[in-house]
Amino acid sequence: xxxxxxxxxxxxxxxxxxxxxxxxxxxxxxxxxxxxxxxxxxxxxxxxxxxxxxxxxxxxxxxxxxxxxxxxxxxxxxxxxxxxxxxxxxxxxxxxxxxxxxxxxxxxxxxxxxxxxxxxxxxxxxxxxxxxxxxxxxxxxxxxxxxxxxxxxxxxxxxxxxxxxxxxxxxxxxxxxxxxxxxxxxxxxxxxxxxxxxxxxxxxxxxxxxxxxxxxxxxxxxxxxxxxxxxxxxxxxxxxxxxxxxxxxxxxxxxxxxxxxxxxxxxxxxxxxxxxxxxxxxxxxxxxxxxxxxxxxxxxxxxxxxxxxxxxxxxxxxxx
Length: 320
Description:
Elements: E1 11-17, H1 24-32, E2 39-45, H2 52-57, E3 63-67, H3 73-83, E4 88-91, E5 96-98, H4 102-112, E6 118-124, E7 142-143, H5 146-151, E8 161-163, H6 164-170, H7 181-190, E9 195-205, H8 216-231, H9 240-260, H10 264-277, H11 292-308
Parallel strand pairs: 1-2, 1-4, 2-3, 6-9
Antiparallel strand pairs: 4-8, 5-9, 7-9
Helix pairs in contact: 7-8, 8-9, 9-10, 10-11
């Protein structure tokens, strides 16, 4: 994109935050530091009780600050989207950050593909935030189909850029979902618009203990809700094979989360459910490595075997 061009559509970066005062400043700085010249930053404080208001106020009029009583992540995003002046919405969680060229590259892609309703990027979580080099063609992107989004989410929420007009068609984020709300939105958008992901690593996300993505039971519950909703839609109704594969992969994902939460018995039961739903093989990129379920099953059994040994610590972990 020619940055000397005066007609650069305004991008509204929406940053919802709740008690993330310790890191929201980094997110704001990454949005303000973009090479793309037309950016407004909207921070929606969802009833924080820490020093978030002071941290945001320190940026002065460079940031539009909105505050509401605590209503959850989806409601906070919706507040920001409704208040946005930009033609394009960029989502950014308060504990994540943008590469300085992220919006410039994504807006260049949207300019070349104006029918696109959602474009994400690759992301990484290295603690030192050492950005990988950009690929030779950073505007290259892969189409992401509705079927692929139903199988799994294909990029981090903070990587997403969405023309605001698309929300007029599909609606805002579902406030009844306490997690997996991003995947619900991607599915709705993919059912109506072309969607894509850029392989360039332009988004950094922070891994924090206690984050929503580490709550296995909640993630499992709401993933099922999102999938049931998706397969009740006109676009996916009657897709029995795809449904079995999607629920099989969801059970595998739950097994992995329970294993990671040191609940191997629950993990083993979810592995059984996964094979019942989908006895076939999952291939990369639906899973991260070949024979992923076999590998995880072996790891779960090894953990259970160690627990069964007489010298195993009786207080180590929970059995779910």
